[in-house]
User: What shape does this take?
Amino acid sequence: MKNGFSVFVAAFIALGLSWFGFVLGPAKQLGREKQTAVLNSSDTYPLQPIGNATLGLQVYRANGCAACHTEQVRQDGVVCDVVLTAAGKKPTVVSNLVSTLKLTGLTKDEADAVSDQITAAGGNVETHIIPVGVDIARGWGLRQSVAADFLYDTPVQLGSLRAGPDLANVGARLPDANWQLVHLYAPSTVAKNSAMPPFRFLFEVRKLGDAPSPDALQFPQGFAPPAGCEVVPTPAAKQLVAYLLSLKADAPLYEAPFTPVTTKP
Amino acid sequence: MNPTKTKNFSASEIDASCRVPLLALFGGAALWLVAGLALSLAAIMTFHKPDMFADCPLLTYGHAQAAANDALLYGFCIPAGLGVMLWIFARLSQTELALPMMPVVAANIWHVGVLIGTVAILIGDSTGFAWLEYSRSASVLLFAAFLLIAISAVATFGARRERELYPSQWFLLAALFWFPWIYSTANLFLTIHHPVRGVAQAAIDYWFSDNLVFVWLALVGVGTAFYFLPKLAARPLHSSYLALFAFWTLILFGTWCGIPQGAPLPAWMPAASAVASSLLILPLIAIAVIACKTVCGANVTCKGGPFCYVKFGTSAFILSGLMLIASACPQFSRVTEFTWFGPAQAQLQILGFFTIVMSGAIYELLPRVMGFGLPFPKFVRAQHWLFMLGILLWAGSLAVGGVEQGMRLGNPQTPFADSTNVALIFLRVGTTGLLFILLGSLLFAANIFAMTFKWKLALVKTVITFIKSPLKITEVKS
Assistant: This one.
């Protein structure tokens, strides 16, 4: 390199290429994303969060919760299960056939072959798509996190460290608002071995008035606030919990398909 | 550039021209180094005693950690790097620092900006983007201050006597251009009123963090090492062709790294990042070869002096680069993603590589710039040992703890609490390391401030003697 201009050109080319790739590219590809359709349903996903849930994201941001919690579930792939829904006109033939076949943990091609066989024998089958992976086995999510999950979040709080569990689906996993509040106030009372610091500054301990506040925390057995006092969440705590409860990545999407487990009445 | 200017500057004249700007940059930087490490310590205390800051929102882990990282990066690394850069430019250009008032003003704006940003994070006004947490008002100040310093640096570079460029100048010049681009991009896409939508935010933040924490620090740190290694070893730089190769490959591949493998982004992005990261091995090998061939066989014993600093820092850079490559490798990242391994790499890059190279460079250049020796020369060696041990303990235990944590995270039969508990042991060991580094930084700050004080005292004395001295006869007559 002979002069300053050639250094400038070199840096311009190198940084410019990655700028087009990793800044302009995603801004064009993802920056104008819209709601997508939920598979096998007329619903759209995600729904725009409202009220306290939106404000709660700002509490989450301000307290740097993403320093310890991720909001992304990883997935290794999917397996297919073939489920017999109706035995058809020749139930004995079908049930004999079914008992000889492997119906769970199949690849897509295997599942198609098996369901063809059973359909030919007269049975009706459904193929269920089941995501697999460590995070899913831990119960942290039903499927991997995808871009659509974060459509309405600003700032997007993906996180990069799991000093605490993943929160991508915490609203579906732990839907009890009181549990969430108690957990924020004194984590070890509801979660054994928790390393989470208590967030007492989000709560107010105050003297019991004539009647207990409707918002006061309901503590589990063995833990109580000081005598004659009650613990009441501040607006920030309520917003934070509303946000946590709004975290539900539970819709099957084109890019992350799965078959929801429905409990039949 | 200016043929009419024919005056030859002596080395001491060049050094003297840098004095005030460098003191302004380094003084604040030393303060932020101590403050950042103290905040880091406060942050890690949460893992020793979780309810320590339960009633004090200012210093909870989420606040203190972000403030500590940014204070180290923006408060120490960048101003220290810029100061060393100005001096190297002036020396290599064989000319006095151009527009010396600009960096002085800029240094003050910069440090005020860092202060505003740090306070904003602590009171909960961070932007929520990693390595870009400073609020908008602080970002504007930092950007303006950087431009002012860059103007002075480019003017000095333009006035150079030697037309042929030395490898350090490529790296440092590229860094001057790098920061305004990435910082303005990140702020315009992320921290304005209507930021880009959805996960594109995360993608841009990954790009920015990699380009600042890995590429920018690498450009400035390696550029500085390429200046000081040959100088201190009293041997020429091994090969400028290899340096050219290292420069090109570093800026071409380094800038595409940093997208985690499991990120919920279109699959081409983590894939492109993994390819670029594996190619990053090329500049790492080139830099390692240059450093080894320049240093090995040199007849210089370092005895804990600046030479030791720069050698240790360069090795830490190679190690940090290898960790970056490892965490982009899909098999390895399945274990280490979302663990303390990532923070270990960042800490090694910032403290083990950049801070040590800069401390060494500052210890080497500051006595020349000030015109008198270090007030506490013994601190240099003590700081070297404290830093070296501290980094090994701190980054080492985070990295090993991260792998242990990842192995437990990766097994769904192991309860989640096991993975955090195993990391806790390593975090506690690492805290000792952090304490060592904090002690070392206090020695560094002591040297810098004692020098500033000594210089100011001398300045006052000169003024007093000037006032007291009898008037010259010629002045009386006129």
Q: What stands out?
A: The radius of gyration of chain B is 23 Å. Residues 182 and 208 of chain B are 6 Å apart (CA to CA).
